[in-house]
Amino acid sequence: MTPPSAQPPWATLNSHVGACYPGQRAVFRGHDLHRDLSRSDWMDVFVFSITGRRHTPEQIRLLHAIWVNTSYPDARLWNNRVAALAGSTRSSGNLALSAALATSEAAIYGRQIDIAVADFLVRAEREQAQGIALTDIVRQELRHNRSIGGYGRPVARSAADERNAVVIGIAEQLGLAGGKYLRLAHAVEEILLHGRWRMRMNYGAVAAALALDQGLNPQEYYLYMFNAFLAGMPPCYLEALERPAQSTFSTPCSALSYHGPAKRNWSLQADQYNTDVGRLQPNHIAHT
Known about the structure:
Strands 1-2-3 form a three-stranded antiparallel β-sheet. The protein is built from 13 helices and three strands; from the N terminus they run βββααααααααααααα.
C-alpha cells in the first residue's frame, strides 16, 4: 500500500466544511452535527451551511418569513406548472419538484433576478459612498441593462407587490427594518416611480435588501433563496395526481391555431425522391 505521505495531492480530498464518520459522528462546519446542531432550526442550519456564520433568532425568523410569503400554490405560475405537468404525466414527486426548482432560475422572475438585484444594491451603495448621486447610478444602470431587477412587475405593473408590506411589517416587529440596503431599495423606488419609468419595487428588491442587511452577500443570498418557492410546489403536483393522467393543462388539437406550412403530400415527395436517386445513381457508381 502506498504510504499517505507518498500519495499525490489530488488523491486526498481536503475539506474545511465537514465530513461524515459512519458509526461515529458528522462534522458540520467545525461543529458536531449531532451534539451541537441537533436541535437547531433547519433554516438556521441551512444559512449557516451557506455563510459559515450563525444568525440571531430574529434574523432566522425574518429569513423564514421571506420564504413563507412567496409560497404560492398556483399551478399557473411557470415553475409550479412544471410540478403540475410532472404530476399529470405521473412522474415521481422528487423529479417533479427538482424540475420545478430548476426552472425557478428564471431571467424575469426567480433566481437570476435575485442575484442581479442584490448585486445592484451592493454596487449602488458602494458608488453612493464614493459620492455618486443615486439618480445617476439608476440612470446608468438603466442605460446599461435597460431594466433593474427587483423593480417593475410584468403581471401587475401598476399595483403594489402584496408581499412587500407583509414582510417589511415582520422585519419592523423584529427590529430588522432599519438597514441601509432597505433604505436604499426604497430610495431607488422613489426615483423610478417619479421618473418616466413608473416602476414599483417588487418582492425581489425587498427580499434582497432585507437579506443583505442581515449580512448576506449576493452569492449567499442567491443560494439562500434556492428553496423560496418550494412550499407552493407540492400542492400543484399532488392536485395533478388527483386528476386523470395527462389531463392537467392538456391542450386538444382542436384548440391549436396553426399558421405554418401547409400539409405535405408525402406520396408526391416520395416520387420526387426516387426520381432524384435514379438520376444520381450513375455518378454514384462511377465514383465508387
